[in-house]
Specification:
Length: 105
């Protein structure tokens, strides 16, 4: 995947199929990522992964990401997805945010 500028963090990567990814950019209020917001985004991504039966990765920085399996398994990594073809979506708020989490985005 191409390198996104740092002001584009955080974002969610959805693997559509081999070498094709959808990058869902997330715009934060005040562009500030607090620990509370980070945890809410992780929980939201877990829910999206389970509901959509998709592997997702939420990327917080060039060496800071969380891979999430539909089973709910979470794995922290310093290696965000790379290679392939990017398709971008930008959301003021990602779709299907679980109740109670949207107030922090």
């Amino acid at each position: 995947m191409s390198n996104l500028p740092s002001h584009s963090f955080p974002y969610i990567v959805e693997r559509v199929f081999s070498a094709v990814y959808v990058v869902h950019r997330i715009k934060l209020k005040n562009r500030i990522l607090t620990e509370e917001t980070r945890q809410s985004l992780i929980q939201m991504t877990v829910t999206l992964s389970k509901n959509g039966h998709k592997r997702l990765c939420i990327v917080f920085g060039t060496k800071d990401c969380i891979y999430i399996e539909p089973s709910g398994r979470i794995k922290a990594s310093t290696q965000p997805p790379s290679g392939g073809f990017d398709i971008y979506n930008t959301y003021e708020k990602p779709p299907a945010i679980p109740n109670g989490l949207d107030s922090q985005l």
